[in-house]
């Protein structure tokens, strides 16, 4: 089982639609959660952190369910510019050194059409 | 600030050749990372560094070596390239402050080994 699992998509939606992505993680000790955005042939960039109480940034809303080990990202009023791959990211403490590293999901591809 | 830069952007190697990828950051970050990204695999950590003069293995270190002689630079070396090392390589850095796990990525190096 992968440590972070996402539906690869693609999700094809029209402009203005609402779309939701889900992600599950296997390490119950994880403390920090993120959504990164990656445009085609570009580097990943942080979209938003995910907090236990849920958080919103404009059209984007992230939710965390620790009991189910589940993270979601909701995008409202989709724009053409939202077309990208969205990576679910979870931190993990390495057992030998205690170093915190990030574990990346393979990403969910979103295509927004006119 | 230039952020995180990587050189070269593209490279084609023949099996058995060697090369060094350079990563530089101007944000005074303590931590630096090298990842590879392959289709369907997500980002996988090759090596990382928690400070100048220190390096450690990630999850896929075989065939790679690294050095961090200066805080702002992190070098990734391939001593004898293999076709399995064809990939996109991303460097990242982050601050060493506690609970700040956001990583900033460079633009990537696309490496093809024939």
Topology at a glance:
The complex is a heterodimer of chains A (114) and B (114).
Chain A: E1 4-6, E2 11-14, E3 19-25, E4 33-38, E5 44-50, E6 55-57, E7 60-65, E8 70-75, E9 84-93, E10 100-104, E11 108-113
Chain B: E1 4-7, E2 10-13, E3 19-25, E4 31-38, E5 42-51, E6 54-57, E7 64-67, E8 73-78, E9 87-94, E10 104-105, E11 109-113
Parallel strand pairs in B: 2-11
Antiparallel strand pairs in B: 1-3, 3-8, 4-5, 4-9, 5-6, 7-8, 9-10, 9-11
Structural summary, described in words:
The complex is a heterodimer of chains A (114) and B (114). The model of chain A has no long low-confidence stretch (mean pLDDT 91). In chain A, 0% of the residues lie in helices and 55% in strands. In chain A, the strands form two sheets. In chain A, strands 2, 4, 5, 9, 10 and 11 form a six-stranded mixed sheet that branches. Chain A is an all-beta fold. Chain A has no helices and eleven strands. In chain B, strand 5 (42-51) and strand 6 form a beta hairpin. The radius of gyration of chain B is 13 Å and the shape is globular. Chain B has strands spanning 4-7, 10-13, 19-25, 31-38, 42-51, 54-57, 64-67, 73-78, 87-94, 104-105, 109-113. Chain B has no helices and eleven strands. Chain B is mainly β and 114 residues long. In chain B, 33% of the residues are buried. At the A-B interface, strand 5 and strand 10 of A face strand 5 of B.
């Amino acid at each position: 089982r992968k440590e972070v699992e996402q539906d690869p998509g693609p999700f094809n939606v029209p402009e203005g639609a609402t779309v939701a992505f889900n992600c599950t993680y296997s390490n119950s000790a994880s403390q920090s959660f993120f959504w990164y955005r990656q445009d085609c042939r570009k580097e990943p960039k942080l979209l938003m952190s995910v907090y236990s109480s849920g958080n919103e940034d404009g059209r984007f809303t992230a939710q965390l369910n620790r009991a189910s080990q589940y993270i979601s990202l909701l995008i409202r009023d989709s724009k053409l510019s939202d077309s990208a791959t969205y990576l679910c990211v979870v931190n993990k403490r390495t057992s030998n050194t205690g170093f915190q590293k990030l574990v990346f999901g393979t990403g969910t591809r979103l295509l927004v059409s006119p | 600030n230039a952020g995180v830069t990587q050189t070269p952007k593209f490279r084609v190697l023949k099996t058995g050749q060697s090369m060094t990828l350079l990563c530089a950051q101007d944000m005074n970050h303590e931590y630096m990372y090298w990842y590879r990204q392959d289709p369907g695999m997500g980002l996988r950590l090759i090596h990382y560094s928690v400070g100048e003069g220190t390096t450690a293995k990630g999850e896929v270190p075989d065939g790679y070596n690294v050095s961090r002689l200066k805080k702002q630079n992190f070098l990734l070396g391939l001593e004898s390239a293999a076709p399995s090392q064809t990939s996109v390589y991303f460097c990242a850095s982050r601050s060493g402050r506690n609970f700040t796990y956001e990583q900033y990525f460079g633009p990537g190096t696309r490496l093809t080994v024939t």
